[in-house]
Structure formats: C-alpha cells, structure tokens
Amino acid sequence: MTSLTIVRRIAARPQIVFDLLLKPEGLKQWIGPDAGPVLIAESDARVGGRYRLRFKMLDGNEYESGGEYLEIDAPKRLVYSWSWQDDPGAPASRIEIDLRPIPEGTELTFTHALLPDQKTADGHRKGWSVSLDKLAAAAERS
User: Fold this and answer.
1) Average pLDDT over residues 19-30
2) Which run of H or of E encompasses 41?
3) C-alpha span between 12 and 138 (Å, rounded)
4) From CA 120, how far away is CA 94, in angstroms rounded?
5) For range 34-44, the mean pLDDT
6) Residue 114: predicted pLDDT
7) CA-CA distance, 42 to 52, in Å (whole number)?
8) Domains contained in the chain, CATH given
C-alpha cells in the first residue's frame, strides 16, 4: 500500500474551506479532475454517514465514488473512506484532510492513503491536484 500527500495554501478561512469539503453545494464546485460537471453530490455529514459523488469528465466518461465519514472535526480535520463504484471488489482507500489556520488563510494537507500501488497513487495525484486547485479557487471566491 502507498499514499500521496498534497499541501495547498488557500486564501480563505478554514471554516470556508471545510464547508466546501463537506456540503453538497460545496462539493459540486471542486470534485473532479477536469472542468466537467459534478452530476451527483450527496453528503450525510456525520461520523458513520455516507457520501456519494458522480462527475462527468470533458471526454464524456463518468465516474462515481462513495464512502463513509470516519472523522469530522470542524474546521480542522476530515477523514473518510474512498471507493470507486465501478470497482466494487477493490478495498476502500482513505482520505485525510487537515486544515490549519495561517496568516494568509488556510494550509490544507490532503493525504490519500491505502492506495494499492505507486501507479495508482500517481494517477490520483494528477486528479486530486486539479480538484484541489478548483477547491482553492472556490474558497477564495467565497
């Protein structure tokens, strides 16, 4: 198993960023590895609650993921399982997001853990990098 970590500095308060991470209307603004639309964003924002995300890429392909919220400590930390719905037999991976206030706004540390191999981690790094850029832009607009 392997993991990837991405750190971003965002010019918005941690609570603004946290809301975008958890609320359906926020998720619709940043999930997905390109500018394609988010078709479904459902979030039962409580420990043990589930979420479901479906996005359409610009090439027309659609992808759906979902999982369970494992830890919610607003506005500091969010942890949830991550599973692709088109690969139901694959073990779930884990997303950990830590938010730390800094003078400019928020330092976000994003970790995607329990990935099966480095090739998968590299592919996810590309997608998450674009998504986190969109998250930062949405937070800075708020």
Assistant:
1) 97
2) strand 38-43
3) 9
4) 13
5) 97
6) 97
7) 5
8) 2-141 (3.30.530.20)
Q: Extract the tokens encoding 21.
A: 């991470």
The DSSP-derived string for 68-137 is EEEEEETTTEEEEEEEETT-TTSPPEEEEEEEEEETTEEEEEEEEEEESSHHHHHHHHHHHHHHHHHHHH
For residue 121, give both structure tokens: 């981690």
* Terminal alpha carbon distance of the chain: 37
Residue 79 in contact with residue 94, Cβ under 8 Å? yes
Please determine, for residue 87, whether its predicted confidence score (pLDDT) is greater than 90. no
Structure tokens at 46: 């409580």
What's the pTM value of the predicted model, to 2 decimals? 0.96
Gap between the Cα atoms of 1 and 11, Å rounded: 33
Helix (H, G, I), strand (E, B) or coil at 51: strand
